[in-house]
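Schema walkthrough. Field components (list of strings):
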Amino acid sequence: TLNIQVLREAMGVVQHHDGVSGTEKQEVAYDYAMRLANGRTACQKVMNDAFAKLIQKGSEGFMGVAFCDLLNISACEVTQNNKQFVMVVYNPVGHTVSRWLRLPVIGEAYTVMGPDNSPVQTQIVPVTKRTMQIPERNGAIATNELVFKVSIPALGFSTYFIKMSNSKPTKEMQQSRMEKIQ
Amino acid sequence: GKDFIMKNEHMALTLDGNTGKWKSLKDLHSGIEINVTNDMAVYYGMPGNCSRGDFQPSGAYIFRPNGTAPSGPSSAMLIKGPLVTEVHTSFSSWATLVTRMYTGEPYTEVEWTVGPIPIDDNLGKEVVVRFMTDLKTNSMFYTDANGREIITRKRDYRETWTFNQTEPVAGNYAPVNSRIYIKDDNKGLQFTVLNDRSQGGSSIQDGEVELMVHRRTLYDDCLGVGEPMNETGSDHNGLIIRGKMFVHSGTTDTAAQFHRDFALRQYMAPLPMFAVTDMKYSDYS
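Field assembly_structure (string):
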């Protein structure tokens, strides 16, 4: 409860009309951003604690989950620096949803195994100059985005196992074709 | 150089083979096609010095444009694949758009990246993404109030008082928290744009929809902030911002079903979390 309170209080502060409309001074904007970021970090700790309880005993290797807050600008330390990782997707909506995910990666082909133990069709999309990372955000090194669709049950989560593949791409692992328009 | 089509089960978007700009969008369920083009444009912020009694400048509270400069894309790239097809267009070194169509999805995704907005010409700039359709909209457009009630907007008109329009652009801007749409009742068509953050938006001409995505102004508007909107970022060049819009074209009697349902999924989006493991898949599963 104390950890959730950090974000709750930050949200309360940012509901000042300056925060809602963006008419605060720059220094205040930085303060709002810091409060929200601190609150978000505290809530992520709550979710990690919940996961630790859900994971069965004996999973000593479980180090907690990482939240890639910069996925929208093609930056994620876990996906771009590891050849193998697990993705858990949580669905807060009360019915089953599907969603396209784009993970920043450095490999050319990946195997993605879905929650039903079957391979998921993927497509590798190159990061071009137009989709480049935001330069002022350090640490974005992805050359590709791994695109695939996930399906998650109502108020539940699905787990996907993702591994860089050294073998020839299969029919599930599709590359993109690029053409310049002149 | 030939026009080409991005298509899935729901819609077909024809793009100009020379520029990568949109040309037409067809709803494959109703078979109705509309002409639609897109671009990015810049409003130049009005300079001024209100503390001296000069003109009111554009600032944090005030959007007061002093003319526009639309720009055509200078280059484009098509990326094709079985799951997603994309067209990447550059409007300048600091403004790009990606148009995406995913398999099986009844919308077109537009991802914009804008910044750092250059100010070495001493002009503040306010950047919009625009969609121009051939819908006859009778000065009407519709915006939401925090995703709940949809509010009817009419250009140069206010419902409860006699309105004297002095700002043809800013005077017609409205908050767009999650969606804006226009309708052509004769054709029975609706063109809807959902955004991923609160923005200002309008329909400055019939059939047009625009959303302001980024601003950088050089003057305070003397309404209490005391400084211009000029966040420079950690490298002191100005911010780079990226966001998305979701465009849907369909009949007026089915459009609400799409945007209500899609908005719920979009704004309560699933949350991905990641963990590194060195286990084999068979052991892990």
